Amino acid sequence: MPPVAPSEFKLPSPLQEVKYPPITDCGAVLYIKRDDLIHPEVSGNKWRKLKYNFEKARLRGNRLIVTAGGAFSNHIAATAAAGQLFGFRTAGVIRGEDADLNNPTLRFAQDCGMEIVRISRAAYRTEGSHDFSDMVKTRFGAHYYIPSGGANDLGAAGCGELLGELDFRPDAVWTACGTGTTLCGLGTANAARSEIFGVSVLKGGAFLRDTADRHLARTFGDPETEAYIREKIHILTDHHFGGYAKSTPELIDFMREFYRTTGVKTDPIYTAKAAFGMARFAERHPPKKGEKWVFIHTGGMQGLPPFEEKSGISVFGNC
Ligand SMILES: *Cc1c(COP(=O)(O)O)cnc(C)c1O
Fold this sequence. Notes:
globular; single chain; 4-stranded parallel beta sheet; 13 helices; 2 domains; Rossmann fold; 10 strands
């Protein structure tokens, strides 16, 4: 049985209908699945990805959860907060020996009781290797390891549950993609055979197709099934705005415009790029009247203040 979420978790996450001209002017309906509202500190797809991993750790009797991430990682913040809520000790292996322990994300993680260990970028790149797991074992002893980004099959399974919270058949479902775990989960749980769109927030997002294919192969093990599930998964790789955590004035303008029209704030690392990709797609391929599109707000709002601090831009200040 999955851990029962304390009552402060808002699940199923709220579904909000919004007006957004590129989509709704054609007579289609746009919903935003507000996973960002699941929990103030364990928000969005990060809770969905952690859920079954925490359950497995509990079943194995592991009291310590170790994971890895960048210095501003939403996954690090979410794991630290969830660990505290569910009674696990947590440790985070952070990319870069020079990572600032006092940045808002790492400060928050440590306040939740997470032990932070910083390693070189070169060592970080070996995540998944024997050397890396030996290092973690030597450093921490018995533990349950969650890959960076919550990127494993249990993480994907938790994300797939989102579709079961909808009581209609969406024609299109949109998500931001980092590791592609959320996309994989949605892709394999796609019983209604909706069109699933993933927008890469990284440069070189073509690897996502491979990630999805390998996930489908592990899940179904039958090429014929994989082929028809696969054709419902669409990956957009042109909306990264220069790469992970990079942005341009055009993206900031878009975030403001999206907020003014829908009343929903996005984050510059993930959800703004996904919403931008959806808007541009809708301009080129307008939805038909009556279609129902669902945009998943995967969360990430904890990344906004550090972004504003680093860039000197107040994104929603003048809206
Ligand atoms: C981590 C994250 C993603 C990326 O999810 P993947 O499953 O790694 O593709 C998308 N949106 C937000 C807000 C995130 O924090």
